[in-house]
Amino acid sequence: MVENLIPCYRFNLIILSYCVFLSCFFVRSYSLGEVDAYGTFSISSFRYPETRLRPFDSRYFRVDLPPWFSSLSIVLESDVDLDARSIAKVPESALPLICLRDGSLPLPQVTNAFVKGLVLGSFSNGSSNELEDIQNEEQCYPMQKNISVKLTNEQISPGAWYLGFFNGVGAIRTQSKMIIRGPSYSFTANISVEGCTTSTMWGQYCNQNSFDSPCHGNGEIKVFFLDVLGIAEQLIIMAMNVTFSMTQSNNTLNAGGANIVCFARHGAMPSEILHDYSGDISNGPLIVDSPKVGRWYITIIPVNLSKELGETRNAGIQVCYSLEWQVLECPMGKAGLNCKWERYILQTVIRKETLFESYYIPVSEKVPSDSAAFPLEPLLSNSSYDEGQDNTWTYFLLDIPRGAAGGSIHIQLTSDTKIKHEIYAKSGGLPSLQSWDYYYANRTNNSVGSMFFKLYNSSEEKVDFYILYVREGTWGFGIRHVNTSKSETVMSVSLERCPKRCSSHGQCRNAFDASGLTLYSFCACDRDHGGFDCSVELVSHRGHVQQSVALIASNAAALLPAYQALRQKAFAEWVLFTASGISSGLYHACDVGTWCALSFNVLQFMDFWLSFMAVVSTFIYLTTIDEALKRTIHTVVAILTAMMAITKATRSSNIILVISIGAAGLLIGLLVELSTKFRSFSLRFGFCMNMVDRQQTIMEWLRNFMKTILRRFRWGFVLVGFAALAMAAISWKLETSQSYWIWHSIWHVSIYTSSFFFLCSKVSSLNSENQRPLDGTYELTRQDSMPRGDSEGRERPEVLTI
């Protein structure tokens, strides 16, 4: 072993002790045998009440799993009604998903909605490949009506896990929308974590203990664990003093040729399929370079024992050994197998001007500490060692605090010459060419295909990338470089809330997950952009102009009913249609980002309220009731439509309610008119006539009333008005976030045009009961103009009355 490494003292399985000595530390080993007398207890249990997700909404849940947990149980109930066939037909923007990620928040739009046709419950009994995917990367699955899953410590590792619930994914999810329509769904969640009642008991059912014989037979599994407490260079696992034991004769034989297979895994129990490292430790040690900080599990399986002793001596054969390991660590400030590379701690500096953001500077006298960016060359390791100039490393360590997983690490390098440095990042340890999470070598060779790596305007002289929703804990960054004394490279490392400040096309907003333990940030993009960083252009500038003109100019259709109302001297309706068209134009001018005369909420309320009033007032205008009753109906309608406009104005059911209210107003007017005429008819003829005459009279009256109704309207205009109204209803129903501008423009034209035709359909009614038709027939009567007291001999004049 290289002399600069500080090895831990060899640790034997039989010595169950744990000690730390300077930079060399020992780790505790446990052998896990089966014991049925122990059970589990509930570490935590949470019930999340019913939560409704509107279109494009999301929710996050954080679950903390301690090192001694045994299982994680998730039970979900929702009103989602999807099966395997219907899921394939649901568009990405309306697909309900549940995502699971280790260490940080899932971000499904980055993964292009990688959706599998599986239910979450298949995790428990799924294939090994599926289980490995859960541990190593984010996984998303379609939401189901009922989901129940139990994930054990053999499948997932301790630490912070995040559940994400999404109603629609893709770049459009973060786009600011004029309306939000689409299917919503609600769900409830029960999440519980169980652990072992005794610290020496492990396994899924807490039926494996730590005190068992160090000897076991062919194919029998023994599991051990150890804790790596800090940044280390190597973890070496060895089997010493290997012998065979014959249980029938109690003989002990040398076993130089035995195969003792070792599987090692960070954070969870390894198996033959799921493991991080493996090897036959009977012939040599298993070496793990740059092991991650945390708990490591080791599985030992003896194989091929019968081949060593022959088939006749196979009965009761066991292999005995002493399991030892060493954790090698460099002195402070050094790293690498030779401990000759430089290693620096990056200190966190809180930014005052921006909430929840910070930057990192090296703790070193070689660079100034008053700037967020620092020169890189003074910190680089010397490349004169025998490993070659193309394999020189400099390491930086930083810490992401608990609860900050909703932020992103921003790395920038700028130089006056071509950058020849390569950057490698790893969570929980030091990166290398064989072990890293993200890397950047050049513009074509990097982790751009990774779901949480975002590369921006990089060139030969500039490197600029983000690690999105970074995991909590220690991060190691390695610079692989060639010393070039002529170059001047400046590096900056920062923790930012939103990548690239939402690309100047949106606002960065903060929120907490359901537990309140993690603050995360997201971009609320403008009307034309989307994506997690608002860098995806969804609407071009030309398209934006077209949409703006269509939405604003289509309100000119309000001139049609306003002109007709003014022509018929219906001044109240004239004011209403004029105000509706103006307020709608102002609202959409503000909505598309052109100009806001008032606040957005005020303009939106005025637009919807006046448009609702215009529709209802058109129906009421068609009645012939007196003005006092019309004012009463208008007052009631104003209150109802104002309530609709202030609460969920954009819901598609409003158009049905508005038309229903208008039709109800028209019906009330006709009923009032009918009752008035019937009452006058009853008083005129009385009820003393016999039944036959009464029925004939009523039928005659009804016929006259129907003739009056038919003469009151121009029915061609009525039919065209209803056709335009139906088109308005259809366009309202077809409005979506993507097609809103075209269908809502058609709505403007259709609804105002229908009102225009309805106004044109009404004619001045003739009250046949109060007015006689001028048919040219005159009646002459004789009247005596002289008083009766005059003398009889006097001649009296005659007066003709018409």
Automatic annotation (TrEMBL):
GO-annotated cellular components: plasma membrane
Membrane topology: Multi-pass membrane protein
Keyword line: Cell membrane, Membrane, Transmembrane, Transmembrane helix
Short name of one Pfam family: DUF3522
Basic and acidic residues composition-biased segments: 781-802
Transmembrane segments: 12-30, 608-625, 632-649, 655-674, 713-734, 740-760
Disordered: annotated span: 779-802
Primary location group: membrane
Subcellular location: Cell membrane
Xref: PANTHER family: FIVE-SPAN TRANSMEMBRANE PROTEIN M83, TRANSMEMBRANE PROTEIN-LIKE PROTEIN
Similarity field: Belongs to the TMEM8 family.
Protein name: EGF-like domain-containing protein
